[in-house]
Structures are given as structure tokens and as C-alpha cells.
Design goal:
GO terms for molecular function: methyltransferase activity. This is Methyltransferase domain-containing protein. It is a single chain. By secondary structure, this protein is of the alpha/beta class. The longest helix has 14 residues, at 118-131. The chain has helices at residues 8-14, 16-22, 30-38, 57-63, 75-84, 118-131, 165-174; strands at residues 45-49, 67-72, 89-92, 104-109, 132-142, 147-153, 156-162, 177-186, 192-199. The termini are far apart. The mean pLDDT is 93.
Amino acid sequence: MAGEDADIIDLYERHALGFDQLRGRTLFEKPWLDRFRALMPARGHVLDLGCGSAEPIAGHLIRDGFRLTGVDSSKTLIGLARERFPGVAWYEADMRQFYIPTKFDGIIAWHSFFHLNPDDQREMFRRFAVMTAPGGALMFTSGHFEGVAMGEFGGEPLYHASLSGRDYAELLGKNRFELVGHQAQDPQCGGATVWLARRRNA
């Protein structure tokens, strides 16, 4: 990374234990996770990009019988995930570079994808398409408005960026995804802006 987003990986590693402690376990995301699950076969294979320490989202999917592959750039967070779910494939990797020759039934990037700069976000849609099986699901959260928004974590600035809603919709279409659901600042989901799509079969 370069610019304001350059320190994201190091920041999450520096504050990994604090992040794990603060990350809520109430699973307010469940309504969207249920919609995501409904697009996949039972016991399907899910790729969680930015899985953190596996709780609550990855753990919820694992306990529901899904096969899961988790990716996170933080060595500490991936270590916690391995301790909690030792039989799962966990990768310490940058989502922008991660690849294994597998077609996933679903890909989720919840509150992780929006830490990438706009150019990297655009490029990720090609990677999503390569790694998603025909008919597979894609769910991610974005910022609420186009542009850069600086947050704060652990007393340090935390970079977020978003494309426009039109850009996301166009990128999905160009990469053979059909938009299934979208909600900006969903009040029932912690104010998250959520995108849910399905890979076209042909």
C-alpha cells in the first residue's frame, strides 16, 4: 500500500488483542448472513477475507457446518483463529494477493474490504470473480459515501475508502455478478452498508 492506507496491516497487528476483545459477539450481522447462506449449498465452502480472530462471523459459519477458509493479514489474529478452530484452513495473507486454485461457494469481506484504497477495491472484483464458483455468493460491506473517511482505533488514524454506489454496481455487473441485496447504513445491522450478489452461471 501507499499513502494514508499504507499502515493498515501494521495497525491491526499492533492492536490485534485489543481488537479481538472489543469485537462484539452478539452477531447483529445474522440477518445478512442468513441471506448469504441461502445462496449457497449446505456445507458449502466459504472464503472469509479479513476474518480476524474468527469471531463472530467465521465461527458462526463453521458451527453451522460450512467449510471455511479464512484470510487475514494479522499474524496475531490468525493465530487466535487457529487456536479456536484448529481444523480450519487459516492463511496469514493480504487479500489483494491471496489465491488458491479453489472455486468458493461464497466469499465474504465484512468490514475489511473498505480498508483498501479505491484502485485496490476495483481490482478486487476481478479476484472475486476468479475465486467464486458459478452461482456462488459474494457479500461485502462498503463505506456509505464515495471518498476517504479516516476513523480511529487504538488512538491511531484508521483509513477507510469507498467508491460510489454506481461504481460498485457496475463492477459487480462487469465481473458477472448479479446484485441480490443492498442496504445503505442498515439500522438493523449496526449501520453497515451491505452488498450481496450472486455469480452468474454463464
